[in-house]
Amino acid sequence: MKHFTIALVPGDGIGPEVIAEGVKVLKTIEELDSELSFSFTEFPWGCEYYLNQGKMMDDDGINQLRHFDAIYLGAVGYPGVPDHISLRDLLLRIRKSFDQYVNLRPVLLLHPSFTPLKDKAEKDIDMLVIRENSEGEYAGTGDWLYKGKPEEVVLQTGVFSRKGTERIIRYAYEEARRLNKTLTSISKGNALNYSMVFWDEVFEEVGKEYPDVTTYSYLVDAASLYFVSDPERFEVVVTSNLFGDIVTDIGAGITGGLGLATGANINPEKDYPSMFEPVHGSAPDIAGKGVANPIAAIWSVSQMLDFFGEETWGKVVLDTIKGLTVETENLTPDLGGKATTNEVGDRFAEKLKEKWVEKR
């Protein structure tokens, strides 16, 4: 039997509600497959913890997480705690401490009714965005000079190391080759004359080792336009930390909203645990109402299973998500349904059992 240990950080707002449904899925898989088992340890970290303790997580929190196979994060952020504190002192701290330098965000249209774009089908919006996740614009490097004075100056420095830039671009080339798909780089080399010129040069340099991979390169403003007007252009995409954050929100917008947006923070070498999360945020305005969409959280379970080497189960979970999308009555209000968060999770577990029987 394979056993996986999972650290749960449900976090803030709707985080605990959607993570509970993801855990329900993993427990259902455990019931169905005698070769797999999971154990869960929950940590109370987040904004409520910050308001009580003055910190987003325990001082030794990273060491507490170090020996888990994976981290399952719900959401971070809540009114009363500045966003730069909630983000940097928990989510970014985990990403950096565990060198989770690959951020995988699928942009996939599950059902034509979900997209606001005219005449687009599932085959038209099917891409994987690979975002650099450890440095770049989110490196946190800079200075605040002469604060409060007329000559006040703020410096925010993007950090693009040879190691960091090359490894994410190489990872993207490997994925494009493995999937037999095109690879598109998104940058802004015409305006950012150091960081993005360097990015473009490394993309071209590494590409010489992958002559079989067809490549394209777009400026981020043009790419943002094409995400909406012509998403068929994109199959595998690689981009920087900031640009990846932005274009994947566009991706969520064209595929049904943030309730379907998922992400995996990967340390490919598995020296440290990787982290899986829905990326819709804490949505405090709907927290506790039972209307949060758990599909993104369940989708991140599919990514987790892939990372564990359980690709068969990962595909079954994703196929079950696709099957659920046609049952409007079993979807949450953001997708046109009337089901509660818990009801979606229950129906998903039922369909998962049906799908597993079909596969067997």
What key phrases describe this protein's structure?
single chain, 360 residues, alpha/beta, Isopropylmalate Dehydrogenase, 2 domains, 10-stranded mixed beta sheet, 12 strands, manganese, IsoPropMal-DH-like_dom, TTC_DH, NAD binding, magnesium ion binding
Describe the structure in your own words.
Its cofactor is Mg(2+); Mn(2+). Residues 5-348 form the Isopropylmalate dehydrogenase-like domain. With 360 residues, the chain is an alpha/beta fold. It folds into two domains: 1-106 and 259-360, Isopropylmalate Dehydrogenase, CATH 3.40.718; 116-255, 3-Layer(aba) Sandwich (Isopropylmalate Dehydrogenase). It is 41% helix and 22% strand. The protein contains eleven helices and twelve strands. It has helices at residues 15-32, 47-53, 61-65, 83-97, 162-179, 195-207, 220-229, 241-255, 295-307, 311-324, 341-359; strands at residues 2-11, 36-42, 70-75, 102-108, 126-132, 136-145, 153-159, 183-187, 215-219, 236-239, 262-266, 274-278. The strands form two sheets. Strands 2-1-3-12-11-4-5-10-8-9 form a ten-stranded mixed sheet, sandwiched between helices. A hairpin with a 7-residue loop joins β6 (136-145) and β7 (153-159). It starts with a strand and ends with a helix. The model has no long low-confidence stretch (mean pLDDT 96).
